[in-house]
Design brief:
Layout: E1 2-10, H1 14-28, E2 34-42, E3 60-66, H2 72-83, E4 91-94, H3 106-115, E5 120-127, H4 132-149, E6 155-162, H5 163-169, H6 179-186, E7 190-196, H7 209-222, H8 224-239, H9 246-267, H10 272-276, E8 282-289
Parallel strand pairs: 1-2, 1-4, 2-3, 5-7
Antiparallel strand pairs: 3-8, 4-6, 5-6
Length: about 290
């Protein structure tokens, strides 16, 4: 029997988490020969966690309480580091705890992973639930990422990773800032499923315009050397045409320089020391089982 962990970060939204666990319980019932366990990383919530009840089709739930709030991305980074030290499992599913990663798609991820056991699977977004303005910005983000990195990054955290890939990315400093960028950069072969972004169970989305910008730049920053190289080439090419439109070309070159400075500044969020020492932020853990 295969053993899967489901890694879920949470901050205060316990109501959504418990609803998600109940829905996961329904989905995994139909997945044969796989044992499912959950790891919930509590990002130093200000609201105390209610008493956990382990659904019948989930083997166990480990609640890991953190000392300081580090944010969603760094909870995932800690969880990946933590899982890299464990041997007795086959795959890890990463997902948000608010309903935006639809639990019914766990079966698609698991089946794809079981069909090709050596390759991780990502949930490729083909449809989103946000409004048209946010979706337009997301498409711009994907185009910018492809233009400056040569990579199509059309997935978020929702994925099913092999144990080998967990170990591989667990030591990459960019994981502290961007999961999807790190995975795309360091793992050459990835399978995918088509995924529809769900709606939050409770309350509005927490993804603000500023957070989207940081998220986008964090992904691009993983490829900062590619970005710098492509930008230099563009600046050189633009120089040959400066006599035709000196103001426009000069502004374009200045914007490229500013963009590279911003990417460099965002790349400073990557921190190898904090990643490798992330377990020091662990307060305690509680395992719930039947």
């Amino acid at each position: 029997m295969k053993k899967f962990f489901i890694l879920i970060p949470v901050y205060n939204d316990w109501e959504s988490l418990f609803k998600l666990l109940d829905e996961i319980n329904i989905v995994v019932k139909s997945i044969n020969n796989v044992e499912f366990n959950c790891i919930v990383v509590n990002d130093s919530s200000s609201i105390e966690a209610p008493k956990f009840h382990v659904p019948s089709n989930i083997k166990s739930i480990e609640l890991i309480n953190m000392i300081k709030n580090r944010g969603h991305a760094r909870c995932n980074a800690f969880g990946i580091r933590y899982l890299s030290t464990i041997e007795n499992y086959d795959n890890v599913i990463l997902m948000d705890g608010d309903g935006e990663d639809r639990p019914e798609e766990i079966k698609l991820l698991a089946n794809k992973a079981l069909a090709n056991e050596n390759v991780s699977v990502v949930a490729k977004r083909i449809k989103r639930s946000e409004g048209p303005f946010f979706q337009l910005l997301y498409q711009i983000h994907k185009l910018m990422t492809f233009f400056f990195t040569g990579k199509i990054v059309n997935f978020g955290n929702f994925s099913c990773l092999t144990k080998n890939d967990i170990k591989k990315i667990s030591v990459k400093e960019s994981l502290w800032s961007s999961f999807s960028g790190t995975l795309k950069y360091h793992i050459q072969e990835l399978n995918s499923i088509n995924s529809i972004r769900g709606s939050r169970y409770f309350g509005p989305s927490k993804m603000s315009l500023f957070n989207l910008l940081i998220h986008s730049f964090s992904i691009i920053a993983v490829f900062k050397k590619n970005v710098f190289f492509r930008s230099v080439i563009l600046i050189i090419i633009a120089s040959y045409f400066i006599s035709f439109a000196p103001i426009t070309i000069s502004m374009f070159q200045i914007l490229l320089v500013v963009f590279n400075i911003l990417i460099y500044l965002v790349s400073l969020r990557e921190n190898n020391e904090q990643l490798l020492n992330s377990e020091k932020n662990k307060k305690n853990s509680i395992i719930f089982s039947h």
